[in-house]
Amino acid sequence: MAKAKLEYIWLDGYKPTQSLRSKTKIENDFSGKLEDCDMWSFDGSSTEQAPGGSSDCLLKPVFICPDPERSKLGTPAYLVMCEVLNSDGTAHESNGRATIEDGDNDFWFGFEQEYFLWNLETNKPLGFPANGYPAPQGPYYCSVGAQNAFGRDIIEEHLEYCLQAGLNVEGINAEVATGQWEFQIFAKGAQEAGDQIWVARYLLERMGEKYGIGINWHCKPLGATDWNGSGMHANFSNTILRTAGNKETFDKICQAFAPVVAEHIAVYGADNHLRLTGKHETQSIDQFSYGVSDRGASIRIPIVAVKRGWKGYLEDRRPNSAADPYKVAARIIKTVKGVKI
User: Fold this and answer.
1) 184 pLDDT exceeds 90?
2) Is 152 exposed, middle or buried, given 0-12, 13-18 or 19+ CB atoms closer than 10 A?
């Protein structure tokens, strides 16, 4: 019997920011198909998801892809993203994926995931000197050269593994701050977009293990300094936006976000007040604005949508780098669905 390694991945119950967990299941003669992944269980008392006296939580497989790195060792390997269920089969309170109301996948999402590569010895971003700071921001965005781009071996290997896994990565680039990078993932369906972001995050964390480099997802790891924070901009559309054909529809949808700022910020990642200050290409956390090509707005209307005759998508720039894409998508969908066109 041929063996296969299935890495079951899930989100724990830690607050305010959940972390990735995973464990390996060995299967015989596995087909590689999601429908042939069995439900599994884990000790929820060790992940802040259950009390010790009734600790079993269930893992429901929802997305599968090859694990290119592990498969190189010889045995076929797969990454299996899972939802967490209570022992009675209902969605666990930590399960953001289950809150997405988009049964027909009408909503398409593209997430721009920023992060810092972190030197664990100096406790600073890769490229920062042990004492003090590097040259100010400016030369690092989309940079090339050893004096400006730090950690390219890591991000290139991560990109290759994501592509071999079948994740729909649309691009990568060095970001504004030293040691800061970004990858973008798009999917036609909110749940799958979230699945792919989490699997890509998982692969990056494992890449960090290999190189002895931390992955810092915090939205403002350098605190109150003149260095950019990290976001996870959410680009979204539905049939209405993709076919609107007029400015009024875009205005109406954007304006629907204004009364529910607090509800969105609540799921857009912890410590976002440190990042959403009105500086560094952000709007203030307690304000709402939108505009064409405005990267200082809460929601940016891409110029491409205007040039296509007001047909396209919107970019919510407020979600931060540590936010749960499932919860971000769920809240955006709720707001947009409440608009009467």
Assistant:
1) yes
2) middle
